[in-house]
Amino acid sequence: NSNFLSSDIATEFKGRGSVIHVLPLSFSEYTEGSHVTEAELWREYIETGGIPLVAQMSSKEEKISYLKSFCEETYLKDIIQHNGVRKKAELSDVFDVVASNIGTLVNPAKIANTFASVLNKKISDDTVTNFIDYFENAFVFSKAKRYSVKGRKYIGSPYKIYFEDVGVRNARLNFRQIEETHLMENIIYNELRYRGFTVDVGNVEINEKTDRTDVNGNVIYAQKSLEVDFIASFGDKKYYVQSALSMDDPQKSAQEKRSLNNIDDSFNKVIITKNGLNTTKDEKGIIVMDLFKFLRDGL
Q1: HEC states along 160-221?
Q2: What is the 3-state secondary structure (H, E, C) of 90-150?
Q3: What is the C-alpha separation between 249 and 24, in angstroms, rounded?
Q4: pLDDT at residue 10, rounded to an integer
Q5: What are the 10-residue block averages of pLDDT along the chain, 299 residues in total?
Q6: What is the pTM of this model?
Q7: Closest Cα partner for 132 from 165, 164, 106?
């Protein structure tokens, strides 16, 4: 593993080899042939993930033990050896920081500052970026770049990071942070990619009224940035996708729809929520779809 990553194949064989990217099991593959309810299997899946060998293990204890060993004995050791990493403790710390922050914007410069202020360690943001790239090249992480919907351009750093397998992420944190909201977002991101979509994080700039006025009594507007969880693109198809664990009250529903309502193009806008209900479409064309239907059938 450490001597020959898939990224080395193109260099080594120069067009004489091909790469097949084998992904962890999707949720629909994980549930195939099982007589257990989707809700029960979902609780397993968000905790121990979809690595096939792990999925076949009979006990939860065995799965947890394997995944924790996998993080330490395979991923970390192979990445250190392959890339000749000397700051081993710092690499391990970056692994922990990213695992704790799935679904939030990651800024290498801020991580470097945290090392200095909290851990009392000196590390440059370039080194943090390199460490993140090492994990991405080893298929531990996947980076989602930010895209300005109205500006039609990529924004650059910060970006979001998701795990190729949520079981690996949970194992890295010793299974202490099983937050369904963030894990569901990670799984939706992976599912979109499994189905062939290129997936970015959306950014929508709006001008919002404030309660302030200028010297002439005119209302002052402030620029605000709203987020769309995912922009999923495949050829000429595009979907704006929000992940919302629940939308139980009108205030939560309005919050989830806000960024979508401020996008004025004709592409589909979808909110995926865990409500167990049939798919609906509101008067503005926003589709609300149940999580398990999405994981079974796609968009």
Answers
A1: EEEECCHHHHHHHCCCCCCCHHHHHHHHHHHHHHHCCCEEEEEEEEEEEEEEEECCCCCEEE
A2: HHHHHHHHHHCCCCCEECHHHHHHHHHHCCCCCCCHHHHHHHHHHHHHCCCEEEEEEEECC
A3: 35
A4: 63
A5: 64 71 92 92 96 94 95 90 92 94 91 86 92 93 93 89 97 94 97 96 89 84 91 95 93 93 94 95 95 96
A6: 0.91
A7: 106
Query: Are 45 and 30 spatial neighbours (Cβ–Cβ below 8 Å)?
Result: yes
Identity of the residue numbered 134: Y
Q: Which pair of structure tokens corresponds to residue 91? A: 């690499």
Residues 6+ apart with CB under 8 A from 159: 105, 106, 143, 144, 145, 146, 201
The token pair that represents 105 in the structure block? 């914007």
Q: Can you tell me the distance from the alpha carbon of 174 to that of 182, in angstroms, rounded to the nearest whole number?
A: 16
- Identify the residue whose tokens are 């996947």: 142
Contact 231, 202 (CB under 8 A): yes
The length of the chain, given as a count of residues: 299
* CA 272 – CA 81 distance, rounded (Å): 41
Digit-coded pLDDT (tens) for 30-65: 999 888 999 999 999 999 999 999 999 989 999 999
Buried b (16+ CB within 10 A) or exposed e, 196-218: ebebbbbbbeeeeeeeeeeeeee
Residue 38 tokens read as: 């989707």
